[in-house]
Automatic annotation (TrEMBL):
Organism: Dactylosporangium maewongense
Protein's gene: wrbA
UniProt family annotation: Belongs to the WrbA family.
Name by which UniProt lists this protein: NAD(P)H:quinone oxidoreductase
Flavodoxin-like domain mapped to chain residues: 6-190
InterPro entries: Flavodoxin/NO_synth (IPR008254), Flavoprotein-like_sf (IPR029039), Flavoprotein_WrbA-like (IPR010089), FMN_Rdtase-like_dom (IPR005025)
């Protein structure tokens, strides 16, 4: 297989999306990729976070996860992006990172990569698909190759989201089925990136 660089870039306030991101990173690594697990910067003041024990606890627990930079996107062949649902949409923290990518986008550095996304909401109908579809709008603008999990593995018929791995936080922490789905999604994205890399010609308008 072609060597593949995979950046798992995510935001998580209370740890759910972090757990999905860890499973995605594991799946990408098992598929043979070199993986960077990266959290985007927090934008909410500490005084607000301190008022929510679960949020404050996760900030401490994830202190050793490196922060996402534009170099992580530039380096990656495949970018696996995670966000909690915020009113059916992408979290402001992830969006702030996305909105810092203008120069890299303009130089062509975001085009031609594989992109795939995962999410969590409080309830099953709380906006998982709308969040993933909103994130996909960004990938279109970047000229990305969107690789959703679809129903490409039996686990998808149990976890049930062809748009991207998703979890309802109100049901408790992510369990085995959703974590398996996350690993499958990562494997599929990495294998697609490897196949694209193997077949890519320098003159097709994509930076090698
Ligand atoms: C401002 C805000 C808006 C939210 N909007 C939604 C929503 O539209 N639907 C939903 O089901 N959950 C919503 N939630 C709940 C989060 O999506 C849920 O807590 C999240 O999945 C937890 O992920 P995390 O543990 O990685 O932070 C919202 C939470 C906050 C703080």
């Amino acid at each position: 297989m072609q060597p593949v660089n995979a950046a798992v870039v995510y935001y998580s306030a209370t740890g759910t999306v972090h757990a999905l991101a860890a499973a995605v990173a594991e799946g990408a690594e098992k598929a043979g990729a070199t993986v960077r697990l990266r959290k985007v910067a927090e934008t909410v003041p500490e005084s607000i976070i301190g008022g929510n024990p679960a949020w404050a606890a996760h900030v401490s627990a994830s202190a050793d996860v490196a922060g996402a930079t534009l170099d992580d996107l530039d380096w990656a062949d495949v970018v696996l992006v995670g966000t909690p649902t915020r009113f059916g949409n992408v979290s402001a923290q992830l969006k702030a990172f996305i909105d810092s990518t203008g120069p890299l986008w303009f130089s062509g550095g975001l085009a031609g990569k594989v992109y795939t996304a995962f999410t969590a909401s409080n309830t099953a109908h709380g906006g998982q698909e709308s969040t993933l579809l909103a994130l996909a709008n960004v990938f279109y603008h970047w000229g990305g190759i969107i690789v959703p999990p679809g129903y490409t593995d039996p686990i998808q018929f149990r976890s049930g989201n062809p748009y991207g791995t998703s979890h309802a936080t109100g049901d408790g922490p992510p369990g085995d089925v959703v974590l398996q789905a996350a690993r499958h999604q990562a494997r599929r994205a990495v294998e697609t990136a490897a196949a694209l890399k193997a077949g890519r010609l320098p003159e097709n308008g994509v930076r090698a």
